[in-house]
Amino acid sequence: MKNLIMTFAAAVGLSLGSFAQGAAENKTFSTNQIVAPYDIEVTYNKTVHVLFPAAVQYVDLGSNDIIAGRASGAENVVRIKSAVAGFPGETNFSVITADGCFYTFNVTYADEPGQLSVEMDDWLRKNPTAEYANDRLFVRLSELGGETPVLVNRIMYSIYKKNAADIKSVGSKQFGIQTLLKGVYIHKDLMYFHIAVRNMSNVSYDIDFIRFKVVDKKVAKRTAVQETYVNPVRVFSQQNTVDGKATVRNVFVFPKMTLPDDKVLTVEIFEKGGGRHQSFNIANGELVGAKLINDLKTR
Fold this sequence. Notes:
The chain is α+β, with helices and mostly antiparallel strands. It has four helices and 19 strands. The strands form four sheets. Strands 9, 10, 11, 14, 16 and 19 form a six-stranded mixed β-sheet that branches. Strands 12, 13, 15, 17 and 18 form a five-stranded antiparallel β-sheet that branches. The longest helix has 22 residues, at 2-23. 22% of the residues are buried. Residues 4-8 have low confidence and may be disordered.
């Protein structure tokens, strides 16, 4: 009986030991969970500049061997150099940009770096539907309602490529310039406005800025005008010139919105150095009638 108890205890102890050993096994990351670093060389007497497709929001350094930060007056450029001449080994730094992309770099010292200026590829805007985008990791941004930047860019890209005329009667036409709201779309908590500007003249139309504001539909005389400006959280294509006899289009992304019956969303387009300003109103009916994005190609 004593031998039986000892044998049972030994078996239990062996099982518990095996369980503890299994529980303590380290887990490994799969390939698609790893952000592959870029290799970059720095030196003490020269500065290396890295140009990113979007504004830089965060920079973190792995050690005091390097100094880096956003270049003054350029929101999408990071400058980096060695703080210690000839530092040994390797360090790193990481960057997060406004479009939600995360970059990491391994840094080594070189008397003569192989590159002093590096431009990161703008693949997210060139073709966000490419398979390469599925292998990337993105920072979720609160301004996008928790959506990943790649999905938002895919939706903008799809709207732009499809170029549907789902709305045909909202816009303006004066001074040889025609503006048109081609569609309003919604996906979860974001709305997408597809707007076209057509230049029917031979004189190029240089856009100074475009702004959106919520205003009263009718304003009585001697009544203070109430205006609330709203800013897009994403713009698909920054085209600032409409050549003669040409048309440009853009997609603007906003947090979802609706309006009271006595309000409208006014779109204003101002010509740089000219007077052919354009303005048109979007009523609540166009907003609540926004087309679901599900039938567009986003994958």
